[in-house]
């Protein structure tokens, strides 16, 4: 899946979570941005990815030792990030953002033929029975669908707010 599609899905998931958690616009923006950022983090194992390009050394080290779509695309990684952020005393809401962001990424990569090593350190790759190639028409359609859904969620929320404000 392309970085664009991962980002679009991360924003959608983050928007859904923000709408469920808070009515404050500023907090919502931080929730959405955090979730979106973490939806790109697993691809740190690809030096050419959006996030890998910014952290070349770490990216090369991870792909050298673990390969692509292994460590950073697993339950183990989600647990690791949760523990690290807890140790750093990060607010629980944002730990949830990180986890759902990473989970959204892994879920999308399961839709590609290569799959992901979800149960890392086990080598076994998990792929959805319905899958399609990265960068194809399905990839692009998903990115568009996710963006439209996000716009719809925000529209519905604003409509409700306006209505309750008028009444
Ligand atoms: Zn990935």
Automatic annotation (TrEMBL):
KW Hydrolase (keyword) present: yes
Residue ranges of the TM segments: 61-86, 92-111, 132-155
Name used for this protein in its record: Metal-dependent hydrolase
Pfam families tied to this protein: YdjM
GO molecular function, one term: hydrolase activity
Keyword Transmembrane helix annotated: yes
UniProt keyword list: Hydrolase, Membrane, Transmembrane, Transmembrane helix
InterPro entries: YdjM, YdjM-like
Species this protein is from: Macrococcus hajekii
